[in-house]
Design a protein that fits this description.
Elements (H helix, E strand, L loop, with lengths): L2 H8 L4 H14 L1 H11 L3 H16 L2 E2 L2 E2 L3 H12 L5 H18 L7 H20 L3 H13 L6 H19 L1
Antiparallel strand pairs: 1-2
Helix pairs in contact: 2-3, 4-5, 4-6, 5-6, 6-7, 7-8, 7-9, 8-9
Length: 174
C-alpha cells in the first residue's frame, strides 16, 4: 500500500477510529512505539545518544581481533535516526560521529574490506548530504579536523578518509 492509498483510506476514518489505529500500531511494533513516543516527547539529544550507543555497540563486535561489525546495521541506525524527521544538522553530526567511531575502533581490531568500503560510502554520503544542504565547507572542515587529529585513530585510516574526501569532491565536480 502506498502513502497516497493509506492517506485516502485514513481520511474516511472518524477521530475515534484513528485513535484506535494509532493505539494498535503502538502495541504492535517496537519501532512504531519508539517513533510515537518521540513524536509526543521529542528529545533529539536522547535519541542521538541512543543511536550513537547502538553504533558503538555494533562497532565493538569482534572475534579474535577481527571486527565483526556490520556496516549494514550501522547504516540502518543512521537511516532510522534520519527517519524521525530530524534536521540535517543532527543527521550530519551522527554521520560525523560514526566516522570518528570507526577510525577509533580501527586501533583495536582488523577491519574487513566490507567495513572499509562502508566507511568510504559513509564519507561520500556525508559530503553529498552537506552539499545538498549548502553546508559543504563546514563538512569539509569537520572532516579535515578529523584527518589532521594525530590523537584520533591510526594514520592509515585517517589517510584513507582523506582519499575518500578527495574522491567525493572529484565526483561532485564532474
Amino acid at each position: 500500500m502506498s502513502k497516497a492509498q493509506l492517506k485516502k483510506e485514513l481520511s474516511t476514518f472518524t477521530g475515534q477510529q484513528l485513535v484506535e489505529v494509532v493505539l494498535n500500531v503502538y502495541s504492535a511494533s517496537k519501532e512504531a512505539r519508539e517513533y510515537l513516543e518521540f513524536f509526543l516527547n521529542p528529545d533529539v539529544d536522547k535519541l542521538f545518544d541512543k543511536t550513537v550507543l547502538a553504533i558503538t555497540k555494533e562497532l565493538q563486535r569482534s572475534k579474535r581481533n577481527y571486527s565483526k561489525a556490520r556496516i549494514s546495521r550501522i547504516r540502518s541506525a543512521i537511516t532510522g535516526f534520519a527517519n524521525y524527521g530530524i534536521g540535517y544538522e543532527y543527521v550530519g553530526k551522527l554521520m560525523l560521529r560514526t566516522i570518528i567511531l570507526i577510525i577509533v575502533e580501527y586501533n583495536y581490531v582488523h577491519f574487513t574490506a566490507t567495513l572499509v568500503n562502508g566507511l568510504r560510502k559513509l564519507v561520500n554520503d556525508y559530503i553529498n548530504m552537506a552539499q545538498s544542504n549548502n553546508d559543504l565547507s563546514s563538512a569539509l572542515a569537520n572532516l579535515d579536523e578529523i584527518v589532521n587529529n594525530e590523537k584520533l585513530g591510526a594514520r592509515t585510516l585517517r589517510d584513507f578518509v582523506r582519499t575518500c574526501v578527495d574522491d567525493s569532491l572529484k565526483n561532485l565536480k564532474s
